[in-house]
Structure formats: structure tokens, C-alpha cells
Amino acid sequence: MDKITINQMVQNTIRQHGSKPALSYKVDKQYQDISYATLADRIKHFCLGLAELGMQKGDRVALLSENRPEWAITDLAVLAGGGVTVPMFSTLTSAQVEYIVRDSGAKILCLSSESQLEKVKAFDTNVPTSLQHVIIFDDMQEDSVRAFDEVCTLGQEVENGDEIYQQAREAVDPDDLASIIYTSGTTGDPKGAMLTHGNFMSNVQAATGIVSITPDDIFLSFLPLSHVFERMGGHYLPLSGGANIAYAESLFTIRQDMQDVRPTIMMSVPRLYEGMHERILRSVKEGSGLKQKIFHWSVGVGGRVSQAIQQKRKPSSILSLKAGLADKLVFQKLKAATGGRLRFFVSGGAPLSQAIAEFFHAAGILILEGYGLTETSPVISVNRPNQWKFGTVGPIVPGVEVKIAEDGEILSRGPHIMQGYFNKPGDTAEAIDSEGWFHTGDIGEIDEEGFLKITDRKKNILVLSNGKNVAPQPIENQLKQSPYISEIMLLGDQRSTVTALIVPSFDELKEYATEQQLEAGDIAALVQTPEIQRLIRAEINQYSADFADFERVRRFTLLAEEFSQEAGDITPTLKLKRQVIMEKHKAAIDQMYGDDG
Questions:
Q1: Phi, psi for residue 430 in degrees, rounded to 5
Q2: Under a CB-based contact definition with an 8 Å cutoff, are residues 588 and 560 in contact?
Q3: What is the pairing mode between strands 60-64 and 108-111?
Q4: pLDDT truncated to tens, each residue of the chain (597 aa)?
Q5: Where in the chain is the domain with CATH 3.30.300.30?
Q6: Signed CA dihedral, 499, 501, 507, 510: sign only
Q7: Quick one: which of 192, 204, 211, 198 has its CA closest to 231?
Q8: What angle do CA 590, 593, 597 make, to 5 degrees?
Q9: For the chain, first and last CA: distance in Å?
Q10: Domain 270-457 falls in which CATH fold?
């Protein structure tokens, strides 16, 4: 693979596809396009404007914003000027923003709106000494900040701007730092993973060797661009092939945005697919008996076709006829809900249930699950459109090395591995050994066909007091197949048995309560009723048939509220903060275990 910078990649695309739409965003509920040529001008002007404000090669520019064109322009402008982007989740608190700005030594902070600006104002007199300028994307008058358009105007007025811009862009080397991405910090302070232009581009080149990206592709971007998965897969990857990136209006408009954009490729975390699956099943349940029979017959037919494809067999002529009928009666409507021209979904960030992947493939919708971490730029392995195995995260991508340590931990080495943690040499030495192997903290195995399977996070493994090891994620994913279980977190480390905290599917629970003539108005009271307790116990037993006796949930507590970012239960990428949840529900956990340790 050729070592190139992100700057070179973007310039190559602009030269080839200048008139094509690059970015799309909603204005008054209608999508507006920005061409690659226009994007090029905005990147140049903002880059020169940042230089006028004092940005030099190696300077850090923090970025606190939702997904929008200014996010992309800022990132690419900073990189073109030799700067280092420090992205932050828009959901972070003022204290978290302050920590990252201070720890990274950011000279400039770019943010989206007044609500994000309020977080900076809350720094009060504790403003980091490195921070010299704050730039806001929204159109508003504020003495303490500069407007995005104002900085672009500064850049437009620079004499010999084209020459200065080209020199700055070409002075950047593939080994130069491109970004410091802070980990979510489920425990302790977040650490800043240092990723170079070469790190990102090695991943982009590996991905384009697996999947063809063309100017005809449209990506719907809704996962936070501050997360490395969307940054590479929904930002740099489409830009490398001249594709169009359309930004979702919000997390709450995804269904409508899919209809408006009609994407060909879309990145997401498993929770989106789980939510789609739940809505589909709920809709079927509300239909007539005949519609339910047709749906389940169609899924059965689609499942047999899926099995034939996976086994590289051609479906029989009778099965093909049935599949055509199932598609016409049921699956065309499901595919239309995604816009009707989806090539595939990509899933990452957390384990995807095999049953969910198989359900969607039965409907003719392929979900390609992959695996990686912030520190690996991020992709280590991914299933391919023509080579996949559900329940795995696919073969290792080109240029990446992987081996399984004696204790089952996945180790990786190659051009995708970060340079280290910013200002944390001790943590870096702990993560990357003397031979260059990055220790992922994940437990896994590689099968005889080269597919990687993740068992669990090393630190999440529950070691029971009898010495038995329990990997919670596969069990949690299996139990979430119950229509009555929305989220579940297994417990049991150093205890005699496995227990669980469960967030029920409240809509399904209320419907069941109505059928059983139970009072459903007070959720907290409802989840304590014997009828609901018996229901969930029956669901756990049904979906635990394949588990070893010591892996089965013996006791559980039903929670009356969903896990949420606002409550601090989950990260911005929807991973459970297990330590936080355990501390919050300590009394309930102690009650489940009684006198047990």
C-alpha cells in the first residue's frame, strides 16, 4: 500500500469529482448539496483563516459539534494546515470538555451552537491557558467567539493564499499526527489515542480493497463523527471514492432521513438494528392472524435462501419461486423502509446478535459486522459483501496482523496501530508491547476459515467463586432476543451464581399487562408484580436452553427506567458503563445476592 496523507487523498478526489455532490444537509426539511469543488474552496479558506489566527503545524484544534458540513470542513482544513483535530462527543459535559481541551493543549476550539458554547462558559476562570480562540458554526453574535464565516473570510483575504495553502498541505507527511481521539472513559479519565495520517489511510486503503466505493454511493451519516468508526467509515472512506455523504437531521429522524436520502451504505451500532427489529415484530404482532402467518412464512423462506447462499449453494427452483413471493408480500416493504437501494449496512462499536443479522439477511438486507478500536484506526477485521459469516466479525483486513495470546486476548500489529496515548507513556507501554503488538483487551478466536470471533471484553469476563468463567456478551445478546427484554447486564464476578439487571421492553410489557388485566400506569409498580416477574423468568428460561448450568441467570432485577446517556449509564456509542450501573444499583444487587460474598 502507498503511504499517503488524508490531504493527498482529498485532493485526488476533488480533481476527479469536483462537480459531484460531496456533502448534503437539511435546510427546512429539504436536503441541500455541497459539491466537491465548493467543499475544496471552503476547506482552503477555513484553513487559511485558522492560520491567520495562529494555527501552526502540530497545533491541536478541538472540535465540539454534531454531524454537519462544518464538522467535515473543519477537520479537513485543520489537517490541510498540518494541525491535529481533537474531536469531542456533542453530549459531553462542561467538565469533560474542559478536561480534553486542557489535556490536549488545544489552541483553538470549534463548536457548533450556543448550547455547546455554554459548556465553555462554564469553565469560568478555569480556562486552559493554551486556548486562544473559540469559533462557532451557528450564526450568532457573541463577543467572546469568532464566527465560522468570519474565519473563512479572513482566509479569503490572504495574499497569495493558493500558494500558502498548497505549501502547508504538501508539508504534511503520512507519519504526522492527524488526530487525538479520546476514548469514552467507561472507567477513569479518558486517554487520547494519537492517530497519524498514515494510520487512517492504511485503514481506508484496506477498506477500499474490500468494498468498491463509487461516486454513485450515498452514505447516511448519523453516528457521531467524533467516534473513530464513523470518522473512518462514514467520512474518510466515502471521500476517498467521491461518494456523497448525507448528514442525518438528528438521531430521532433516522427513519425519515433514510427515506429522503435513500442511502446505498450506512454505518451503525447494533442498537439501530435491534430497534428496527423490535419495531418490525411489534408491527407484525398488531396485524391480523393472516398477516402474521404470511410474515413468519416469508421469514422461514428467506432463512432457507440465506442458508443456501452462505453454503454457496444455488436455491432450488421451488425455493426461488417462494422467495420471490415472500419478497413481494413482505420484504419489499422492509427494504423500502431503508430507502430501497441499500447495498449493505455495516455494524460496529459493539457485538451484533447473530439472530438479528440472520433475520435481516432473510429479508434480503445484508449487515456486515466488523471489529476494531479507537487505537487501531479502527478496523481490524470485517465481513465482506461476498464473504461473510454471521456470528463473526469477519476476516482480518489487508495489511493488518492479528494473533491470539495464550489467555485468549486478541493482539494486533501493523500500520493501523496508534502512536500511543497523548502524554501517557506508561499507559502506552502497557497497551503496546516491545514487539509492537497492541493488546486489545478483547477475548477471541480465529476459526479454520480465517474468521475472527469475539467472545467478550477481557475485563468483562465474570469469574465465579467456583472458578468458572462466564463471558456475558453472548449471553446478553441471546437473552435480548426476547421481545420483553430491551437491555440486560449480567453480574456475578467473584459470586456463586450469575444474576442480571434487566431493562424490559416497556411497550411490550404494557401490552402484556393490558392483556392480563394488570394496572400498567405505574411502571415501577408493574415490574414488581408476580405476573411480570413470572413472564421474564419464563423468557430467560426459554432463551437459555443452550447455556451451561453455571451460565444461567438465577436471579434478576427489573429496572423501571432505560439506560441512558443523560443518566450516565451508557457511552455516546451506546456501550454500557458497567461500573457506573453497578454502583447505581448496588442495593438491588446486594439484595439479589443476599449473604453471598
A1: -75, -30
A2: no
A3: parallel
A4: 679 999 999 999 999 999 999 999 999 999 999 999 999 999 999 999 999 999 999 999 999 999 999 999 999 999 999 999 999 999 888 988 999 999 999 999 999 999 999 999 998 677 788 999 999 999 988 888 999 999 999 999 999 999 999 999 999 999 999 999 998 654 567 899 999 999 999 999 999 999 999 999 999 999 999 999 999 999 999 999 999 999 999 888 999 999 999 999 999 988 889 889 989 998 998 999 999 999 999 999 999 999 999 999 999 999 999 999 999 999 999 999 999 999 999 999 888 889 999 999 999 999 999 999 999 999 999 999 999 999 999 999 999 999 999 989 999 999 999 999 999 999 999 999 999 999 999 999 999 999 999 988 888 889 888 778 888 988 999 999 999 999 999 999 888 899 999 999 999 999 999 999 998 889 999 999 999 999 999 999 999 988 888 899 999 999 999 998 888 888 877 788 888 999 999 999 999 998 554
A5: 461-593
A6: positive
A7: 204
A8: 90
A9: 55
A10: Rossmann fold (3.40.50)
C-alpha cell at 586: 448496588
Cα gap 49→59, rounded to integer Å: 14
Length of the chain: 597
CATH of segment(s) 461-593? 3.30.300.30
C-alpha cell at 421: 496515548
* Long-range pairs, 127-130, Cβ under 8 A, ≥24: 128/98, 128/101, 128/102, 130/60, 130/101, 130/102, 130/105, 130/106
Residues of the chain with CATH 3.40.50.12780: 6-172+211-251, 270-457
Closest to 20 in 3D by CA, of 41, 43, 37: 37
CA distances to 246, 254, 340, 352, 475 from 220, rounded to whole Å, are: 5, 9, 13, 20, 31
| C-alpha dihedral sign at 258, 264, 266, 270 | positive
Q: Write down the CATH number for the domain with range 6-172+211-251.
A: 3.40.50.12780
Note the pTM of the prediction, 2 decimals: 0.86
